Amino acid sequence: MIIVKMRAHFFLQPKGDKVLTKKGAKSVYNVGTNDEKENLTVLVTANAAGELSPPMVVFKYERIPSHIAHSINKSWGIGRSESGWMCGPTFYEYITNIFVPWLVEKKIRRPVLMFIDGHVSHMTLHLSQYCSKNAVELFALCPNSTHLIQPMDVAKTVLAKISKRLAR
User: Fold this and answer.
1) Is residue 20 a part of any domain in this protein?
2) Which residues constitute the signal peptide according to the record (predicted)?
3) Which of 37, 93, 137, 149 is the most core-located residue (most Cβ within 10 A)?
4) Total domain count, the chain
């Protein structure tokens, strides 16, 4: 089974002077000062059959506030890192607490091949050993290049083009 790891960043206060609002609205609110780098990272994996594993939301908190923790879907993972970005310990948490249990629950035959970004921040010896014991083969793509070869992004683009052509 082929698995693809995808990471998305949702910027909470993007930089810019444009605000989306209802056409003709009298009151338009805008964020005054913002940190354009403040974001949430969401990690999700999908297999070649199109099944999605439960995601993990990574927050930039020392301790995740209880109101946030209680608002997240129970099947999702919650992670934290100093930067709010995916790092070795949070990826390890995802693999051990969400991904491998999902493989077991879905009765997905192993070994599985997982394509990941080869950036050193994702890879740890501990992770490699755990994956080896659990028949998860990690295949590291060139670091910081997954946006060019991300299979889910490519598939989405191809489907959009096909839909557009069919609509004509």
Assistant:
1) no
2) none
3) 93
4) 1
